[in-house]
Amino acid sequence: MNVYPTEKIRNVAIIAHGGAGKTSLTEAMLYQTGAIKRLGRVDDGNTTADFYPEEIKRKITINTTLVPCEYRGLKINVLDTPGFADFAGEVKGALRVADSVIVVLSAVAGVEVQTEIYWEECGDLPRIAFINKMDRENASFEKALEEMREKFSQPIVPLQIPIGAEANFKGVVDLIKMRALLFEPGTGKMTEAEIPAELADQVEAYKEQIVEAAAEGDDELLNKYLEGEELTDEEIQRGIKGAATNGTAVFVFCGSALNNMGIQPMMDFIVDCMPDPSHHSDVKGKDVSAEPLAALVFKTIADPYIGRLNFFRVFTGTMKADSVVYNANKEKEERIGNLLVMRGKEQFAVPELKAGDIAAVAKLSVTTTGDTLTDKARPVILKGIEFPQPTLAMAIEPKSKGDEDKLSSALQRLMEEDPTITMEKNTETRQTILKTMGETHTDIIVERLKSKFGVDVGTTEMKIPYRETIRAMVQVEGKHKKQTGGHGQYGHVWLKLEPLPDAEFAFEESVFGGAVPRNFFPAVEKGVREAMTEGVLAGYPVTNVKVTLYDGSYHPVDSSEMSFKLAAILAFRKGMEQAKPVLLEPIMNVEVLIPEQYLGDIIGDLNSKRGRVLGMEPQGKNQLVKAQVPLAEMARYSIDLKSITQGRGKFQMSFSHYEEVPANIAEKIAKK
Ligand SMILES: Nc1nc2c(ncn2[C@@H]2O[C@H](COP(=O)(O)OP(=O)(O)OP(=O)(O)O)[C@@H](O)[C@H]2O)c(=O)[nH]1
Fold it and tell me: Contact at 8 Å (CB) between 615 and 504?
């Protein structure tokens, strides 16, 4: 593969709801450019972009795949992203390094939820739309268009209209060339023809929208247009390019990725009108090739053959093979060996990469996703990537004992690859908690642990770290006395137990006249602390208790530290039983961000989860609901929220405080 200058590069992310046809479109683009000789199919598991076994098995994209196509002397770096919400982190990475976006819609399903969500996340990135699956039963170009206009604020402007639909889909009318383009299914061969007479009215209506959008794309043209002058074809072209580059209009194409129909006109548009990397908002107004090196790592994978691979985009300067660069985030130099242009599982080594290009490098020592590789003499740190926070927590444990260390180091490695998972050890419940973006994500982590690291693991629900406390003050006696020939054992204490709302534990002594000698005090405290590790209700740790040692007795020969410790344990257990013990549960601060229309359902659901809604406030088009909810009710909230809002809601939570568990629930927990 050649080295391409900045102006000959297009970095295009393909985004859409799962199943709209992103991977099929990527495959068709590769075929169209001659990079592959056979059109692979998702259903046959032989596409270039989805080559991981886990992707082939599920027939979905899990990883963003970089697929460079060489076309008309340019290099189009296609980033095929996953549509499934659990892998939203991959989309974030791709959008950070793309200069423009292809939004794929199914002509049958129209604008689906994830498409809407990712559309928002595109921010200011210029985008075009490809209405796919025109060959399918119930395909409707108009309906998809209408839904786009309903849901998106940008002007939506078709540059084509379909000729035929469903099994009868034959091609498109190119509204700029004013010609019919007919495609041969499979080969994608394109022939031109006259516009079918029955489409004449439609063509006129759409043409007017194009002229308007073109005028909006160029100030000079806008004046001309507003003064009622007609724009020439050349001016319309220029205006369209301006609007496409600035993102002031979204131009629409259509076709069938599966049958390789309608791909070439869209690719021509990318080449002719979509922005090159010098337009990216990070570098706007700069001479990208004259600036010092700044390359952002947006994805890291542990490749089974090559080892760790970092994918990066060069924003400014040139990245050279066999060079030394500076990781400005880690403040460490890194040695670059080969620069690899990847295409699915294929790779080509290149001597250098110009500003704007995307590639991978193997075997760096400290670099991870989000880091900037730069020039030590003139270091730059590029803005990182804001990954979504994981929301589904599950406990994970190795199936065979002794694999604990192996599990935690494997998870560490997976966390380097995937910034949307976290792992933590809960010291109270002794569980390893894995947090992910959803159930499928968890399943995939479990599979990877087995296939890549040989650790067989199971997942269970997270245990809730309950605690126990007391609600009354009591005074109790504890006596440990044994006479078994020779030395006996003797310890005797009187303890006062009382609730201590503002601290976990306090121990005091106020013993008169040496009833218990001073040297045994530490043993008594030790006994109390030991007893507190397992409460009398359900065996959870005891908290918020003050214990005072105020009396007792001793034996000059038989008393020992051990005897006093045991006496204290006895006293504490007895005392706790009498002091109205209760179970406490962790209460979380929860913030849920949702579109207004789900407000009622969300509040109803939080109430049914024993939550207290503290308030809500509008945030743009959304509502932020603040509540406090017991952790025990929140274990599967990420799944519930997804189903109530069809994936449109977000939430986060953090620990707030402990509160008493209602008696009926406490009883059930104690029985368990
Ligand atoms: N009839 C028809 N089917 C299509 C077309 N494009 C894609 N499909 C089918 O739709 C399904 C999903 O296609 P993909 O290309 O995997 O969709 P995707 O958007 O990449 O899906 P994710 O990566 O999982 O988000 C597959 O069964 C494809 O064969 C099309 O143009 N026509």
Answer: no
